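User: Modeling request: complex.
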Amino acid sequence: MKNFLLEIGLEELPPFLVKKGEEILKIDFLKFLEENLIEFSNIKTFSTPRRWAVRANLSDKQKQIEEVITGPPKKFGIDEKGEFLPAAIKFAESKGVSKNELFVVQKGKGEYIAVKIKKGGLPTRDVLSENLPEFIKSLKFPLMMNWGRSFLFPRPIKWILCLMDKKIINFKVDGIKSGKKTKGNRLKGNEWIRVNDEKDYEELLKENFVLPDFEQRKSLILKKAKNLVKKKKGVLFYDDELLEEVTGLVEYPGVVMGEFPEKYLEMPRDFVVTAMRVHQRYFAVEDREGNLLPYFIAVINNTEDKYEKIVEGLEKVLIARLEDAEFYMMEDLKIPLEKRIDSLKELYWDEELGTVYDKIYRIDRFFEVINLPDELHRESIKRAIFLSRTDLTTEMIKDGKEFTLLEGVVASEYAKRQGEDERVVKILREFLKPRAIGDSMPELKESAILGLIDRWDSFIGYFLKGYRPTGSKDPLGMRKIIYGFFDLLIHFKFRFSLKEWSEKMMDIYQRENNKEQILDYIFKRYDRYLEEKKGIRYDIVDSIIASDDDDLYRIYLKAYWLEEYYKKERRTFLGVVVGQKRVANILRNEKTASFINVTLFKEEEEKKLYSKVEELRDEYLKSLSEEKFEKSIAYLFMLKPYIDRFFDNVFVMTENIEIRKNRLALLESVKELFDKYADFSKIVVSNKEIEEIQGGKG
Amino acid sequence: MYFQDVILKLLTFWKKKGCLVFQPYNSEVGAGTFNPATFLKCLGPDPWKCVYIEPSKRPKDARYAQNPNRVCQYYQLQVILKPPPDDVQEIYLDSLKSLGIDPSEHDIRFVEDNWESPTLGAWGVGWEVWLDGQEITQFTYFQQMGGFDLNPITCEITYGLERITMYLQNKDSIFDIKWNKETTWGDIYRINEEEFSKFYYEIADAEIYLEEFIKIEGEIKTLLEKKLLYPAYHNVVRFSHIFNILDARGAFSPKERNARILRIRNYAKQCASLYLEKIGATVE
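Assistant: Request completed. Predicted assembly structure:
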């Protein structure tokens, strides 16, 4: 094994791409080694804004393998006497072997002329020198630019360092020659550094103020930050996303603390934190009770020895941003939210769907016509509806910069200062939650109701105007809207009829549309949502939807318990499904008796099935109406042995029409019970799974 | 270092690097990119290097001279390098050194900031350059201009002259910058800022500008038909500024706003196409 090192030097990468690109490089490099028959061990990768690197131990030579390559079919390759025909000889020539090395192999149904080729065995150094240029050129990252060369890359490549066994592996990538030099920290001289030994790579860079290991840099930043805030008896307001971002912004983990005048703390906490976090990428500092302190932590790409001048600059910029926020707030508070409602008439929500005022008006009307639980504080919701989008007219939001993220929060903060009811203030603050995937839920049920209706209005509106997102394109964010809607209804166990909600919202839009289409669309998304977020098989969800349920929360519960059963009792579950498919098939084209006549039973097994159904029916129905679905499943699955024995011993399609119809009626009554839970015949069972069940039997 | 010396230093620095020293455009623009020395010259195959000052006029940034950082008119220094030299970042850092900024004592960072101009049908990738947390320069590799892919690509470096000078002179407000020994930036521009803020936000008669908007649009169409590139582009620049005035006045709903941006872009694209035609470059 020989030491190997490859470093690609770059102009500063976008921070999000630093670690991500390192991962891509690692995966692709491993694939590259495999394709090139190079064995490896101890692979390690590095990343900073200015470099990606990989170091490994590589085999001195490629592995040697033999590959059988097939050529023309035997009948064109050899005559009856066993002599090779021209087609075979040409094939041998093309592979660079003599015709004596040809032989015949069986492949699929036919026989072919074939040849064994030896591959590999070349010195790794030669293979790398030949193939690395293409490898580098073919790397694909989520962001690429035209940098004036023949291939795209995330940022211009400035140097390529490539060493093996302390010697340069020579190659050129579009004019850029590989070498043994790298660069240190840009701010500390930016000199070329010669790397003579792969093992010295990290140490040399450290001497030049670059810490190339991403995770090491990250944990060092955190450690330094925690130590700094201790001096002020503070606690770092930890933010992992921000920590990853700043780690991707520096080569050296310099950490400093700054402060700002206390008077800005009179502004809402979120305004201050946003001013620090979003553009400046500073961390906030809290006291032990969680109150904001007038300090911040910033990460710099330089050593801390000359921090005073740097911190002074950092403070000035923050103050200018806080100043902006304060200016906006003072301007905004001159016009109460109440008075802003009218100006929503001039603000477009959507070209086709009207103004923001129209939206609010629709939400209010919908709120008035749907059934809602009694315990809700209706007045607060109603007030919040009308104030909910007023902050779109504030300077804070209109600025279109960092504070735009605070939609809802701004309305809430202003409402508080204008003496609105506490509950209204809270609803305004929360109703847009969850704002992103992984965000927390609102606390008040009232906030959730407004959140649900607001999203429902957006969804129906977009749907009616024909908007359909595709996998990668969703400019209106419909997927986020629908997922937020599902998150809320499940979290708050909120019950409603989807049919009713669709009809009523379409009435308000005064647009005709196929209700079925909307339901279908929502159900399909719900399938996927439950599969992605709750790990429930989509066809289990489908089977429940097919049982004509339109209460999304109840669908979730039923699916949840069925999935649980499926996971625990896989074989029984699949057996029941197969049984129900059989029942459904038999009943499809047959007439059944209108009632079951007990005197027509001939076999023991049909009598037993009948009495078990009758015995369980009431308890089963009760469990359904009480939504004790775990119980309901247990009852249904108790029937399985009876159904199995029935099919094993009773011939349904008997000649005697009366008996046949009676047996069919018995099956129908079984199916009716199952259908109340789910249409089990909709669940997909693969051939492999059928084998599994049958294998179990035998 | 006085404001005027910052300007002279940078112009001289880039002149020495082979840039032609150009002049601002003679009509209001929001950014130096609108100057034909950038917008048109980065199209087509011919190399081009220049440096110029551009007064940047942004009605929406008017703050009645009350904000220490935001004003409705300030100066950009624009450098255009087509194609960009390999060590363009190092040359840029050298230009900061020529102003007495020693990188080893500061936190200078190239922070990703991809640039897009909806009105010019242009976008690029690059950075904003931070000096101790303050954004002092926008650094962009243009990828498209007027809807056309660029080949070769062009590097645009835009210095915020006031920001840098504030830093060098250790001032907290743009108005306190010393232009020369006796005169501050505020002496020259404070009243100007107050008055233009009042004009943009309170006085500007939307009717007049809406009318002018329509008239200029007619003119642009005629000029494009007659293939008179420079007059046509001149009017696109005016058109864009009038749009900015109306926008600050809040004259457009978002819907209308978007529609108008698309119109400006469409004319900018036609100008780009006409330019390529005139210099005999092949148009994809």
